[in-house]
Every structure is written in C-alpha cells, then in structure tokens.
Amino acid sequence: MVQTTIITEAIRESIAVKQAIMEDAVLLDTIHMAAIAMIHSLQDHKKILFCGNGGSAADAQHLAAEFSGRFYKDRPALYAEALHCNTSYLTAVGNDYGYDEIYARMLRGIGQPGDVLVAISTSGNSPNILEAAKAAREQGMIVIGMTGKSGGKMRAYCDYLLNIPSADTPRIQESHITVGHIICEIVESSLF
Ligand SMILES: O=C(CO)[C@@H](O)[C@H](O)[C@H](O)[C@H](O)COP(=O)(O)O
Ligand SMILES: [Zn+2]
Predict the structure, then answer these.
(1) CA pair distance 151, 162, nearest whole angstrom
(2) Is the pLDDT of residue 1 over 70?
(3) How many angstroms separate the most distant Cα atoms in the chain?
(4) Nearest C-alpha to atom 2 of ligand 1 is from which residue?
(5) Cα torsion at 77, 42, 192, 147 (round to 10°)?
(6) Which helix (H) or strand (E) holds 112?
(7) Which domain holds residue 50?
(8) 3-state DSSP assignment of residue 118
(9) Residue 95: burial class (beta carbons within 10 Å; 0-12, 13-18, 19+)
(10) For tag attachment on the chain, is the N or C end more exposed, with fewer CB atoms within 10 Å?
(11) CA-based Rg of the chain, rounded to a whole angstrom?
(12) Domain count, the chain
C-alpha cells in the first residue's frame, strides 16, 4: 500500500536522522555547549530569543514557551520569546522595510549583549534569518543556529551550529524539536 510505505519510510527516516545525531560526537558536544551558553545567559539575567519561518516559527514559539512557561519542573519563569508573535509588527515592518528585516529590526531594538538568539532555518539560507543572525551579532548576542546538514549561509554567523544531519526539511524540523527539548531539559535541570 502506497500510504503504508509513506508512513513507514517517514518514520524510518526520522529514526535514522536521530540515530545519526547520536553518533555525531561533535554535534552532541555542540548541543551541550549551546545549553551551557543559555544557562550562563539566564544566570546573568539575559534573555533567550527564537526566530524561524513556517514550521520553524512554530518550533521557535514552542521552545520559547518551554522556557517562559515550564518544561518538567514547577519553577520560576525564564525570559524567552519567539520574535514572530506580534502580527501588527510583522505586517508593518514587512510592508514598510521588507520581509528580510522583520527579525533584524526587532533585535536591534531589544537585543542586549549576552542575550541568546536561537535562529532556526532548515536550509540555513532564509534571508530574514540570516539578517537576524547578523543583527544579533552586532548587538553582542550569542547566536545558536539550528539548521540542516550543510548549515547554509548561517554557518558564518553562528557561535554554536546545531546542523542536523539531513537535507529533508520535515525530518530536520523533527530533530530540531528533539534537540530543543534536550536543551530545555539540560537548562531546567541545571538551574532548578
Ligand atoms: O514546515 C514546513 C515544512 O515542513 C514549512 O512551513 C517551512 O518551514 C517553510 O517552507 C520555511 O519557509 C522554510 O524555511 P527554512 O527552514 O529554509 O528557513
Ligand atoms: Zn513542517
């Protein structure tokens, strides 16, 4: 059956990508270091900002809410936000300055040295995410990139590159959420 093949292949590929992450010592180390960077920023009363497009915007919002709401533990809120949640802002800045500017402009307004930007792009090439990463660096922020295998142009702007070993957008996104949840667990268990 065609549907059964699609279902089992998607699951098989998703497992294979996660298996490849588990066998990539450099990536595992980078996940750990990215979590430590977030812990230090939060201990220093800095904030964690997330951005992405489409499914990655949903991932940005999901992960920000794990920090600002709660993950496993009943504990104080951590300062985390996804940058796409204000549609009035997005439509105004997209309309007046262009879509590539939507996140960069906000970061120039609110980004502080020591804050963290988690920039999520499966291709690593979305212009608004690249502009965001550049603006974050100009503000003295730490940039954690979540991308696919190649890292794309994002590679040049990341302090920590979490490049999932796949070139398939949905499979990459599934692993972004897995890695994001792992980071949430490390951060929460270290701070509380
Ligand atoms: O969720 C999906 C596909 O799984 C889409 O909404 C996807 O996120 C969008 O096409 C994005 O615009 C892709 O951008 P990016 O990941 O290359 O930065
Ligand atoms: Zn998706």
Answers:
(1) 8
(2) no
(3) 55
(4) 55
(5) 90
(6) none
(7) 2-191
(8) strand
(9) exposed
(10) N
(11) 16
(12) 1
Tokens 């590929």 — which residue?
Answer: 13
> How many angstroms separate the alpha carbon of residue 55 from the centre of ligand 2?
4
Give the residue-averaged pLDDT of 175-186: 98
How high is the ipTM of this complex?
Answer: 0.99
pLDDT in tens, 46-103: 999 999 999 999 999 999 999 999 999 999 999 999 999 999 999 999 999 999 999 9
Q: Which residues make up the environment of ion ligand 2, defined by Cβ < 5 Å?
A: 55, 173
Please give the annotated binding residues for Zn(2+), written as ranges.
Answer: 62, 66, 173, 181
In the structure, how many helices (H) and strands (E) does the chain have? 7, 5
Q: Which residues line ligand 1 (CB under 6 A)?
A: 53-56, 121-123, 126, 129, 169-170, 173
Residue (of 41, 55, 20) closest to 159 by Cα position: 41
